[in-house]
Amino acid sequence: MKKTLLFAATLAMMASCCQNKGKCNCDCDACKNCENKTEEAAGEEAVAQIVENDQYDLAQLKQDEEGYYILFDGSSLDGWRGYGQDAVPSSWENDGESIHLKGSGTGEAQAEGGGDLMFAHKFTNFTLELEYKISKGGNSGIFYLAQEAKDANGEMLPIWQSCSEYQVLDNANHVDAQLGVDGNRQAASLYDMVPAKPQNAKPFGEWNKAKIVVFKGTVIHYQNDEKVLEYHLWTPKWKEMLDNSKFCKGGEFPYAYGLMIEEGKEGGYFALQDHGDDVWYRNVRIKVMD
């Protein structure tokens, strides 16, 4: 079953200055032009189709003594499938201890048979815990509150256009750590929006603990047992954050703003990113707080 949502979003492509609107802190003609184009385009609409697929029955999962559902403990990948796919992509494997992405070296282009790996159940209020280990120069991410969505042509939109991302990165050896603003593309950051502070990621090849708490719009990231950021969905501040990011209305990605401004109100999936680099995830568990 599909349900079609209309989102106010421009179909025009903007220049790079426009895409970074709000970051350069200037009053240049290009930024003014971007603002004018955004206002002019406000009445235009792009159509995104959210595809509602069958949900995995959580009753099939084990629960630990703390009430967490065990999503992965090394035994199987039951409940997991590729984003926009019916099965686990061939780029991912269960190595008996962890969920391992076999790196292709092709970055975001991914390899044939690859794709992001998601757990096939939508969660609304939850605590998600897992451990990750990244390869040297590696990049990955943990998406949450995601939707499976298509554009007006029926093509799957990239998952990151519908949701938030907990960044997974080798800060010391990947160039993305130096990009963005104030470190907001480093490990455990809300990617391209809020930096993780303190930045306490362990080096590549070592296990890090990640925890994401979502409750009634409040979102908290933890890394290695330390709180590193907090933000609040559906607030004026959240809108401001979107406006000042690559997901802004009038930017390069016409569907992202409409999807993310309402992010999480009806729950969403969480997924592990295939960014083409070797990465390992283990001890994945979630506590539902609905």
Q: For the record, give the distance between the C-alpha atoms at the N and C termini, rounded to a whole number.
A: 24 Å
The overall pLDDT, averaged over residues, is 87
CATH classification class: Mainly Beta
Helix proportion range = 10-25%
Provide a count of the helices. Answer: 4
Task: Please state the oligomeric state of the protein chains shown.
Answer: single chain
| Poorly predicted ranges | 1-25, 28-43
Percentage of residues in DSSP E strands: 25-35%
Class of secondary structure makeup? mainly beta
Number of domain units: 1
What is the CATH topology classification name?
A: Jelly Rolls
The value of Rg in angstroms is: 19 Å
Bulk shape: globular
Sheet with most strands: 8 strands, antiparallel
- Name given to the CATH homologous superfamily: Exo-inulinase, domain 1
Topology, number of strands: 16
CATH 2nd-level architecture: Sandwich
- What is the H-and-E element order? EHHEEEEEEEEEEEEEHHEE
Structural topology:
Layout: E1 2-8, H1 16-19, H2 29-40, E2 45-51, E3 69-72, E4 80-82, E5 92-94, E6 99-101, E7 117-119, E8 126-134, E9 139-146, E10 149-150, E11 164-169, E12 208-215, E13 218-223, E14 226-232, H3 236-243, H4 256-261, E15 269-272, E16 279-288
Antiparallel strand pairs: 1-2, 2-10, 3-16, 4-7, 5-6, 6-16, 7-15, 8-12, 8-16, 9-11, 9-15, 12-13, 13-14
Can you describe what's shown?
There is one protein chain. The chain is mainly β. It has one domain: Exo-inulinase, domain 1 (Jelly Rolls). β12 and β13 form a beta hairpin. It is globular and about 45 Å long. The protein starts with a strand and ends with a strand. The relative contact order is 0.23.
